[in-house]
Amino acid sequence: MARFYFDLVHDWGKLRDEEGDEYDDLDAAVQSAARSASEIGRVRVSKGDFTDVVIDVRDERDQRVVTVTSSMKLIRHDTPPVEPNPKIPKGQTSSLQ
């Protein structure tokens, strides 16, 4: 078992994990960090916050070994208002011939 630390990265700085958790290996720690990032992102989205969630994973030697990023991208596809066709009188429809 090895101890890994998950530091939450913000644009104003880093919230350092001082306790850490033990995992069988790095892959298990990465899976846990990914689940944590996803859960934090879910909570943020429910509050209207769509910013990335970034977690730096450190090992027992205090070395950053992995960075996990969970992001959500929103693209709005609003339909522009349809302008009336001045060639078609109001109340009539056009017919293609």
Blueprint (SSEs and pairs):
Elements: E1 2-10, E2 13-15, E3 21-23, H1 26-46, E4 53-58, E5 64-70
Antiparallel strand pairs: 1-2, 1-3, 1-4, 4-5
Structure write-up:
There is one protein chain. With 97 residues, the protein is of the alpha+beta class. The chain has one domain (2-70). It has one helix and five strands, in the order E-E-E-H-E-E. Strands 1, 2, 3, 4 and 5 form a five-stranded antiparallel beta sheet that branches. The model has no long low-confidence stretch (mean pLDDT 87).
> Structural class, judged by helices and strands?
alpha+beta
Shape: rod-shaped
Approximate helicity band: 10-25%
* Percent strand: 25-35%
End-to-end C-alpha gap: 77 Å
Radius of gyration: 25 Å
Features:
single chain, 97 residues, alpha+beta, five-stranded antiparallel sheet, 5 strands, 22% helix, rod-shaped
Précis, in short:
By secondary structure, the chain is α+β, with helices and mostly antiparallel strands.
